[in-house]
Amino acid sequence: MKKWMLILAAVLAAGAAQAQVKFETRSTDAVREMAVKEGKLVFIDLYASWCPPCKMMERHVFSRKDVGDFMSQRFVAAKYDTDQATGKELMKRYGSGSIPLYLIFDTKGELLGRIQGAMSAEEFMDNVRKVLKR
User: Fold this and answer.
1) Which letter, b or e, does each residue of 50-73 get, where b requires 16 or more Cβ atoms within 10 Å of its Cβ?
2) Is there a contact between 29 and 83 (Cβ–Cβ < 8 Å)?
3) How far is CA 116 from CA 18, 84, 96, in A?
4) Which residues in the chain show pLDDT less than 70?
5) Which residues contact 110 (CB under 8 A, 6 or more apart)?
6) What pTM, to 2 d.p., does this model score?
7) Farthest-apart Cα atoms in the chain, separation
8) CA 70 → CA 16, 64, 92, distances in Å?
9) pLDDT at 76
10) Which of 45, 55, 72, 111 is at a distance of 20 to 30 A from 35, taking alpha carbons?
């Protein structure tokens, strides 16, 4: 019985891991190239490891299957720590000092929109849809 419970738990955990948003950590140029090849836009999550709202978004929004499916259909997603070089540079160029900050770019590198702060999954997807409609 214990063996079956462990197998079931492992299967469920594997399914949950696949359901979440898949974030790249490659260079911004590599992410843009991936987006061009896949015919998608670029989504960037600027976060910090010490940021409670960033952790909340990771746990309660980006871990959801519906959000993962929504994002994978439209974007190549990447995340960069604002305490590291790439994240610092992006924050300096596009940020206003507050994280989490989400940036949406076309494949030419033009900023289409910014979304700032923590929110529910539904509100997050609504905000992304608003940027996409522009």
Assistant:
1) ebebbeebbeebbbbeebbebbee
2) no
3) 26, 19, 9
4) 1-19
5) none
6) 0.84
7) 56
8) 15, 10, 28
9) 97
10) 55
